Amino acid sequence: MRAARPSAKQAASSPSSAALAGAIAVRDLSFSYPSRPEVLQSLSFIVNSGERVAIVGPNGSGKTTLLLLLCGILRPTGGIVSVSDRLIEAGRFNPCISYLFQSPDDQLFSPTVFDDVAFGPLNMGLPADEVRDRVQEALKIVGADALAERPPHHLSGGEKRLVALATVLSMNPHTILLDEPTSNLDSRNRRQVITILQQAPQTLLVTSHDLEFLLEICPRVLLIDGGRMNADGPIRQVLADDCLLQAHGLEKPHSLVPHRHIGTAPHGA
Q1: Beta pairing, strands 97-100 & 86-87
Q2: Strand (E) positions, 148-211?
Q3: Residue 83 has what DSSP assignment?
Q4: Closest by Cα among 192, 167, 172, 157 to 113
Q5: Is 176 left (phi over 0), alpha (psi -120 to 50) or beta?
Q6: Helices (H), 13-154
Q7: What's the CA angle centered on 194, arms 25 and 238, to 5 degrees?
Q8: 3-class DSSP state for residue 34?
Q9: Single pTM value for the model
Q10: Greater confidence, 35 or 22?
């Protein structure tokens, strides 16, 4: 179930796609850990500027590893990644891409929430006034402006996750990579994250086991398993395929399961 899309090689050389801010081109991307070879094997795909794309797969399928490669935290063992027509260099700060870690404790390390949200803009060399404005706006977007002077380690799990999202938004990147952004959120904060991401102008790649959440955010999905691309297409079409999902350890979202509406028996029947 793969939608027809240009190859990564074509997109990387096309000024009408990968040259756009936020466009991602991945070609023959492979990665191995020392104790685990072939975590990813020759992945190739294109994400156009402004697209919102879900990445799904069973535990251990390489979803988080893929995001870490896309933002340059990990170095591929083969293949290339380019964003906005520029190659991603491992270990080099790239303000065009922001990554939301699966655990907010990996993202928050400063004395106060304000300092954490200011960290990215400060490293971009922005003037103090603009840094302050960006911090205030990012905290306002996630509904955490009242937390600015709080120590991050005093926050609840849900508050930490919203503040971590603010650290990403404050950099105003072209591309945002989000790893399980609704994990440990209550229904109100989950809905808030959905609204924020639906309105975000950036290119988004989102991993989550919350498939209902992904249905609301992303029109397109990539299904990765065994280190390989197993599906790339419209999310409702891919996630409605029982055979495909069962083959890769996933369960169809409840909203895509047909439901019978049983009428009330006539009075006196």
Answers
A1: unpaired
A2: 175-179, 203-207
A3: E
A4: 167
A5: beta
A6: 63-70, 113-123, 128-141
A7: 55
A8: coil
A9: 0.86
A10: 35
Residue 50: which H helix or E strand, with range? none
d(CA 48, CA 54): 13
Q: Residue 77 phi/psi, 5° resolution? A: -85, -10
**Other residues' Cβ atoms within 10 Å of the Cβ of residue 93:** 10
pLDDT in tens, 163-178: 999 999 999 999 999 9
Find all residues with CB under 8 Å of 184, minimum gap 6, and list them. 157, 158, 161
* Integer Cα distance of 152 and 3 in angstroms: 43
Could you read off the pLDDT of 133-150 as tens digits, one per residue?
999 999 999 999 999 999
Which two three-digit tokens encode residue 69? 């490669």
- Which amino acid appears at position 31 of this protein? F
Query: What's the distance, Cα to Cα, between the start and end of the chain in Å?
Result: 48
Listed as own residue / partner, the contacts of 123-127 with beta carbons closer than 8 Å and 24 or more positions apart are 123/93, 123/95, 124/95, 124/171
CA triplet 101, 104, 105: central angle to 5 degrees?
115
3-state secondary structure of 159: helix
Which residue has 């936020």 as its token pair? 22
